[in-house]
From TrEMBL:
Protein's name in the database: F-box only protein 25
Originating species: Xiphorhynchus elegans (elegant woodcreeper)
GO terms classed as biological process: protein ubiquitination
Coiled coil regions, renumbered to chain: none
Gene expressing this chain: Fbxo25
Gene3D superfamilies: 1.20.1280.50
PANTHER family assigned to the protein according to its UniProt record, in alphabetical order: F-BOX ONLY PROTEIN 25, LD30288P
């Protein structure tokens, strides 16, 4: 949701919404710096945000930016500072004399890789040990990933054969990403009840009065959530 706002919705935010947005970002950056958890995601978000801000600031007057231009320049400088802090982030090496990832048998390591839905996560894990690298290069793994995210007719249009004549499924995955959106996954999702006209988290539910509540539920993606506010 924050990334969608960074890419296309900044000019529609009110002054109060802007303040809340950047306060949330500040807390996320602080949390990542403290816990060293998922820095790549916030780096991608800040990159999108800085690119959008640079375009808006350079084209001031051509688009509506709510607030003083000096405030936006100050925010851009803050984003650049956050990016530098994350760039300098040193990941602490965990000292543990117990069981490690490398101690797991091959079939368990393979099962872990097959549960990933993001290609970059697979590549990152493959850089940990030579064994994981070997498993991360498996053609069947990348084929399953392509089949999970894309329809057969989509990757049939962009077949990339290897030197041996086989389909290079790893290259296919990243090529298809440029043309089609990948399947979205979330730990919890918003749902909309058409009967009660109410938004709620799927895990918490709501006391629906419909005779068959399941037929009234509709999942709400971050993009759909933003679209609800368009008049």
């Amino acid at each position: 949701l924050l990334q969608l706002i960074a890419k296309s919705q900044l000019t529609s935010l009110s002054g109060a919404a802007q303040k809340n947005y950047f306060n949330i970002l500040d807390k996320i950056v602080r949390k990542v710096m403290e816990d060293q958890y998922n820095p790549r995601l916030i780096k991608d978000l800040l990159q999108d945000l800085s690119s959008t801000l640079c375009i808006l600031i350079r084209g001031v007057g051509k688009s509506v930016l709510v607030g003083n231009i000096n405030i936006w320049i100050c925010r851009l400088e803050t984003i650049l500072l956050w990016q530098q802090q994350l760039k300098n982030l040193q990941m602490n090496k965990q000292v543990n004399n117990g069981l490690t990832l490398s101690d797991l048998p091959l079939h368990m390591l393979n099962n872990i890789l097959y549960r990933f839905s993001d290609g970059w996560d697979i590549i990152t894990l493959g850089q940990v040990t030579p064994t994981l690298y070997m498993l991360s290069e498996d053609r069947q793994l990348w084929k399953k990933l392509c089949q999970y995210h894309f329809a057969e007719k989509q990757f049939c249009r962009h077949l990339i054969p290897s030197e041996k004549g086989h389909i290079d499924w790893k290259l296919m995955y990243f090529a298809l990403q440029k043309y089609y959106p990948v399947k979205e996954q979330y730990g919890d999702t918003l749902h909309f009840c058409r009967h009660c006209s109410i938004l709620f988290w799927k895990d918490t539910g709501h006391p629906c009065t419909a005779s068959d509540p399941n037929t009234c539920l509709m999942p709400v993606s971050p993009q759909h959530f933003i679209d609800l506010f368009k008049f």
